[in-house]
Specification:
The protein has 683 residues and is an alpha+beta fold. The chain is built from eleven helices and 32 strands. The strands form five sheets. Strands 14, 15, 20, 21, 22, 23, 24, 27, 29 and 30 form a ten-stranded mixed beta sheet that branches. Strands 2, 3, 5, 13, 16, 17, 18 and 19 form an eight-stranded mixed beta sheet that branches. It has a five-stranded antiparallel beta sheet with strand order 10-9-8-7-11. A hairpin with a 2-residue loop joins β22 and β23. It starts with a helix and ends with a strand.
């Protein structure tokens, strides 16, 4: 056990000499940062080294796994990258096992001494000092004067004067005389303390070469996602443009300042995951008995008979330069800004913002992602955040009011229909709307590609009333009979009406009415939408000041149902005929079916009557036979009963003949009905 502990101590000290040669983080400051919207950031650090040097980079302890997973180190001027060293974070459980311990929360004196049996100790007690070897630790139950029960530990020691015991409560100090064991225990306690307090980890990069050389380290680590927020200024006067500003919000949560870095904001979301690479992992190995068999014989392996070559696709991942598209010209804006007079009066925000706020970024496509690259170096101190303008300029759009199926209340929303004419892609984020110089409301936008249109709503339009009504009607369009089954074509019409009233006497309205687009339904009204989505039709209504307007749409769904002829009746078919859904041929066909069906039913009724009469006579015969047992053959009543039985037999013979004829007639008429139905096909 002591050999294992010594080995652990030796390994843990190997990193110490390297740190003596490590330089500070300033030797390789952060120069380039690329932030993604997936919670990671790509960092580049560059610096200069001379000769053989070891450069140290510090990170937060919980980020060391990301660094080990992604670190790339380059020496640009002929040098060579050696080992990358870092302090090994051995699981504390392994160190506890080396000392025969298991629970780091239970390191009491009794537990420790119980694992050091046979070790020499010096113990200071309330009765004096003792020196000896630990024999054991026992637990005893005792009862105090008040009758309370408790457990105490008692240590047994072998001293020069003999065996002695000491209660744990009487021990004041214990020292292990085995220096190696004492050092192992001290190291364990230091490891337990550092495990709770260590906040940063350092990696040391060994760089070998001659002379001054440029070096770079690149890695990916967890970062907050960069966010966007927008301001939209609506025009006040005829001919004014809509003005939009987009700001990127970035946070530097690292322990290094970003001093004049090149910052790129990428809209892509690369796949990322975490993996614990810093903690040493050990595999359980089976314990086998010492082999005592004979020496192993040589093994012959089968010869291969078929071979395959698997190649790797050579994909070029070259980065396209990207089209640098800037929304505004900084020089033009500066010239305009110089001509704006200072004033405390009400300011037209659209014009002022376009002159005072300059876009700091240009956008483009690189590979499969869209990026914003800040045109000038950016400085963000550690644990600080910044908001940077990345979009500013005019954008196409128009004012609208929007009424949707989900709109609550009787008023539509004030909104804007935007066309992304900025040649940039707008990322999701909040948008504050200003009407001239007055805050009008907040909106939220999703991803909007270049040239795409979106509608945004930011306030309730209290000057416009909207009343929505919806009703459905079902009509039968066509009735056919095929193979004895009625096929009915039905149509359901859903009529949605929206009545609009503008109470604003100074301005008209362009109202966009959204109607639910039902699946498997067809828009059958004459009015046509100006736009459709997966679930909506959009219609446009122009309202004059104090004007009114309405939209009425009809959606139709046609479907078919089947109905057995037996489940229908002549009155229903005649009503369909009056509606124009059923022809005279259908009605006549049903009458032919009904007459044949009536003939079948009539024969079945006659057979039923025959069976009932047969049953009645048979029951009467049974009654007469029971009566005959009560009289003698010479009695006149006996002769009467015999005459009745003979009459019943004659009637039964006649019923049997009649039923046979009726059965044949029923079979003939059922065959006639079946043939009629199978050949019946009328439109």
């Amino acid at each position: 056990m002591h050999a294992r502990i010594a080995t652990l101590v030796l390994v843990s000290g190997l990193a110490a000499p390297l740190s003596a040669y490590a330089q500070q983080d300033d030797a390789m400051p952060v120069t380039d940062v690329t932030l993604y919207r997936s919670g990671v950031g790509s960092f580049q650090r560059q610096g200069t080294v001379s000769g053989n040097e070891s450069v140290g980079l510090s990170f937060k302890a919980d980020q060391i796994n990301d660094i080990l997973k992604s670190l790339v180190v380059l020496d640009f001027d002929g040098g060579r990258v050696g080992a990358v060293s870092y302090s090994s974070d051995e699981p504390i459980g392994r160190r506890l096992e080396a000392l025969g311990l298991s629970d780091p929360t239970d390191l009491s004196l009794g537990v420790l001494l119980g694992q050091f049996l046979g070790s020499s100790v010096t113990m200071t007690t309330t009765n004096g000092d003792l020196t000896g070897r630990i024999l054991g630790v026992e637990t005893h139950a005792v009862t105090d004067d008040d009758g309370n029960h408790r457990n105490i530990r008692r240590f047994s020691l072998a001293t020069d004067d003999g065996l002695t015991t000491v209660d744990e409560s009487d021990v004041r100090n214990v020292r292990l005389l085995d220096e190696t064991l004492q050092a192992d225990l001290t190291e364990l306690l230091v490891a337990l303390g550092s495990q709770r307090t260590e906040q940063t980890r350092t990696i040391e990069i060994d760089l070998k070469g001659q002379g001054d050389r440029r070096v770079m380290a690149a890695y990916v680590q967890e970062t907050p996602i960069w966010k966007t927020s927008y301001r939209l200024v609506l025009p006040e006067a005829e001919g004014d443009d809509l003005h939009i500003e987009g700001w990127a919000i970035v946070e530097n949560t690292t322990d290094q300042d970003w001093d004049d870095i090149s910052l790129t904001l990428v809209a892509g979301q690369p796949v990322g995951f975490q993996m614990d690479l810093a903690t040493p992992l050990y595999l359980e190995r089976p314990v086998l008995d010492v082999p005592v068999e004979l020496a192993a014989a040589p093994k012959m392996y089968e010869r291969g008979t078929e071979f395959f070559e698997f190649g790797r696709a050579q994909n070029s991942l070259g980065l396209s330069p990207g089209v640098q598209r800037s929304v505004t010209s900084s020089q033009d804006r500066m010239e305009e800004l110089e001509s704006v007079p200072a004033t405390r009066s009400r300011t037209a925000l659209g014009s002022a913002m376009s002159k005072s706020t300059l876009s700091m970024a240009s956008g483009g496509d690189e590979g499969e992602v869209f990026f914003f690259r800040l045109n000038n170096p950016v400085t963000v101190e550690k644990r600080q955040s910044a908001m940077l303008p990345i979009i500013t300029g005019a954008i196409e759009g128009r004012r609208v009011s929007v009424i949707s199926p989900s709109t609550q209340g009787k008023h539509p929303y004030r909104g804007v229909e935007l066309t992304n004419s900025t040649n940039l892609k707008l990322m999701p984020g909040p948008l504050s709307v200003y009407d001239g110089s007055v805050f009008a409301g907040d909106a939220q936008i999703g991803y909007i590609g270049a040239g795409e249109q979106r509608m945004l709503s930011y306030a309730v339009d209290l000057d416009v009333d909207a009343e929505q009504n919806q009703k459905q009607d079902m009509t039968v369009q066509r009735v056919r009979i095929i193979d004895g089954v009625i096929h009915r074509t039905e149509a359901v019409e859903s009529v949605h009406t929206v009545d609009l009233t503008n109470h604003d006497s100074s301005a008209g309205r362009t109202v966009v009415v959204e109607i639910q687009r039902n699946r498997e339904w067809t828009l059958s009204s004459e009015i046509k939408p100006f736009e459709t989505t997966d679930s909506l039709y959009r219609f446009e209504v122009e309202l004059d000041p104090n004007g009114k307007g309405s939209v009425e749409t009809t959606q139709t769904r046609v479907y078919g149902t089947t109905l057995a002829l037996t489940s229908s009746n002549l009155e229903t078919l005649l009503s369909y005929q009056r509606q124009g859904a059923a022809s005279q041929a259908v009605v006549d066909a049903f009458k032919g079916y009904a007459s044949r069906r009536a003939e079948v039913d009539q024969v079945r009724s006659q057979i039923g009557n025959n069976d009932s009469e047969t049953k009645r006579i048979t029951a009467d015969q049974l009654r007469i036979r029971e009566l005959m047992q009560a009289v003698t053959r010479q009695d006149a009543l006996y002769a009467r009963y015999m005459a009745q039985l003979e009459s019943h037999e004659d009637a039964l013979d006649e019923l049997r003949v009649q039923r046979s004829e009726l059965a044949k007639e029923l079979q003939m008429k059922e065959q006639s009905l079946d043939l009629y139905l199978r050949t019946l096909r009328v439109e």
